[in-house]
Write a structure and sequence with these properties.
Structural class: alpha/beta
Helix content: 25-40%
Distance between the termini: 36 Å
CATH superfamily: Spore Coat Polysaccharide Biosynthesis Protein SpsA, Chain A
Largest sheet: 8 strands, mixed
Number of strands: 10
CATH topology: Spore Coat Polysaccharide Biosynthesis Protein SpsA, Chain A
Radius of gyration: 17 Å
Number of domains: 1
Shape: globular
Length: about 210
């Protein structure tokens, strides 16, 4: 499998490149690729600004259908990938959880999509997609129907329930995305609190929280 990071958005609310925002010592996309590199042998970044990502250990590809939003990015990434299954993520999720991603990969079992569902809402930019999605996605792009979920009825979908997510990410911070300056401030606070917790665990000689 490969991981595909979508970094071609218009950043309308942030008004600057979200992928390059710093949280701690790393940018958001650096934090993402650091986690993804432990799980996948190939990382593909779909981007309209390759010059900002050339330092990454990743394959940079252009958006094949510019102006079609995340659905166009998913299409471009799947076309570029040599793998049947791919984990697709947006470039604004700084707290990816390797355990949850591994679980999603493990439960694909021939489904075309594995996507988290929380309180009735889907997380399609933190999901597994197979290449079987290419033809229905292309149909939607040709119709200019750009909602990611618009083609889900044409493929087999495995929904990951809240109870499953909770085992790996009880606070669901995997899905915390940075869209505004206020989100950025919150993300930096979360990262700092996490660093303090890690130092405390290290001081106690614990690899995980123990009760």
């Amino acid at each position: 499998m490969a991981a595909i990071v979508l970094s071609g958005g218009s950043n309308d609310r942030m008004l600057r490149n979200k992928a390059s925002l710093r949280i701690g010592q790393k940018t958001i996309i650096e934090r993402e690729t650091e986690v993804l590199a432990t799980l996948f042998s190939t990382i593909i970044v779909v981007t309209s600004t390759p010059e900002t990502h050339k330092h990454l250990e990743a394959r940079l590809v252009a958006d094949l259908v510019p102006g079609k939003g995340p659905l166009g990015g998913i299409y471009s990434g799947l076309v570029a990938s040599k793998d049947e299954y791919n984990f697709v993520v947006g470039c604004d999720l700084p707290f990816l959880n390797d355990g949850l991603i591994s679980y999603m990969v493990d439960v694909k079992n021939g489904h075309d999509i594995v996507v988290p569902r929380l309180n009735g809402f889907l997380e399609p930019l933190h999901a597994v997609y197979s290449k079987n999605c290419l033809i229905p996605i292309k149909r939607q792009l040709d119709r200019n129907e750009l909602r990611i979920q618009s083609f889900f009825g044409e493929v087999t979908v495995r929904y990951v329930r809240k109870s499953e997510i909770k085992k790996y990410d009880p606070d669901r911070i995997s899905f915390f995305n940075v869209n505004t300056e206020n989100d950025l401030r919150k993300a930096r606070l979360i990262a700092e609190n996490h660093k303090i917790q890690e130092r405390f665990r290290s001081f106690l000689g614990l690899s995980n929280w123990q009760t």
